[in-house]
Each structure stands twice: as structure tokens, then as C-alpha cells.
Amino acid sequence: MSTTDTPLVIVGRVRRAHGIRGELVVEALTDTPDAIFASGRRVFAGTSEGEPTRDRIELHVLRSSPFKGGLIVAFEGITDRTTADSWRDRTLLLPESEVEPPGENELFIADLVGMRVVHVNGDAIGDVIEVFELPQGLMMDVRRPSGTSVLLPFNDQTVVEVDSATRTIRVDPLEGMLD
Predict the structure, then answer these.
(1) Would you say the CATH fold of 109-171 matches that of 8-98?
(2) How far is CA 5 from the centre of its chain?
(3) Where are the domains positioned within the chain?
(4) Rounded CA gap, 164 and 175, in Å?
(5) CATH for 109-171?
(6) What pLDDT does residue 136 have?
């Protein structure tokens, strides 16, 4: 199977340019950032929404180093600040077959989309239609049965259980979050 047939998963998000030589500040969204962003590795360019670009642009890592909870990464072909600025908020992707599969009780962020969200009291809240990565953490956009949507944080304070077998997320949101 070629990489064009394999589903891609998000392994990083470009936060901003760093310096004047085209380096990027990357938020690693993988448990193995040192391996994924090692010199010589390649990743695919994605849109800000996490979709692959139509032409499946390959980016080759020249070097990377730790930086404030993320990485500074230099890619082949991105050699100046102007070009680097154009990559802000874009995702970096790898074929699912090249990423270590999630462990027990883990899943890919993209797997949350389509899951049912249920209150701990049993009331249906809705379905996850999108997941946003914000500075505060992951937020789930949940479409309610009425057609409206509500944003719920995907954190230990709100999410009680994620059952990947039944594709259900049980939540106990703070009072007023669902209003």
C-alpha cells in the first residue's frame, strides 16, 4: 500500500516561525517526538484542520531541538522567515502505519470525531463533530440533538470515561457548560 492510500494522522502543529532562517516552532502531538522529528525523517504537510494537502507535500527534517514544551524544527526548503510564517497553524502528518499505535486506553485525537457524548446521569448530549487544539488544551465541538453545538474540554475534570468499543464519551461538565 502506498502512502497515498494510507490514512494520515496528525503528529504536530506549527505554532509560528522562529528566527530568520526558516525554523518553525512545532507543538508535537505524538508520544515519540524525538523519533518523528529526527533529522532525515519526513512528514507530510497538512491544513490547519488536519487534512492532507491535495499534492501531499513532503517536508524533510534537517534538525530539531527541544523548545519550551515543543520543538524548533528546520525543514528542507523552508529557508527564511517569510516562508516559515506561511506555515503558521498548519498540521504535520504521517501515515498511520508509521506511527506507533495507541496503547490500551489511548486513541488518536481524530478518533474522537463521531463519538457520542453522554452525561454521567445518562442524558445524551450529542456527537463530537470536531476537536480543536487550543492553548488551554483540547476542546470537543459537540453537536446537540437540537442542531446547536457546545464546546466541552477534553480533560480529566470533564471527561469521566472514553469507551472506544462503543464510541461513547461520558462527561461530567461543570454547571452551566451545557447552557
Answers:
(1) no
(2) 20
(3) 8-98, 109-171
(4) 26
(5) 2.30.30.240
(6) 76
- CB distance 34 to 115 below 8 Å: no
Q: Please name the residue ranges forming H helices in the chain.
A: 33-36, 81-85
Residue 84 neighbours by CB distance under 10 Å? 23
Q: How far apart are CA 28 and CA 52, in angstroms?
A: 17
Q: Which long-range contacts (CB under 8 A, 24 or more apart) does 56-62 make?
A: 56/3, 56/4, 59/92, 61/37
Give the pLDDT confidence score for residue 1 in this predicted structure. Answer: 38
CB of 24 closer than 8 Å to CB of 85: no
Residues in contact with 167: Cβ distance below 8 Å, sequence separation at least 6, in sequence order: 114, 115, 116
Q: Which CATH superfamily is domain 8-98 in?
A: RimM (2.40.30.60)
Instruction: Reduce the DSSP state of residue 96 to 3 states and report it.
Output: helix
Strand 42-45 relative to strand 58-67, pairing? antiparallel
Neighbours of 122 (CB within 10 A): 7
111 falls in which pLDDT band (50, 70, 90)? confident
Is-contact 153 141, C-beta < 8 A?
Answer: no
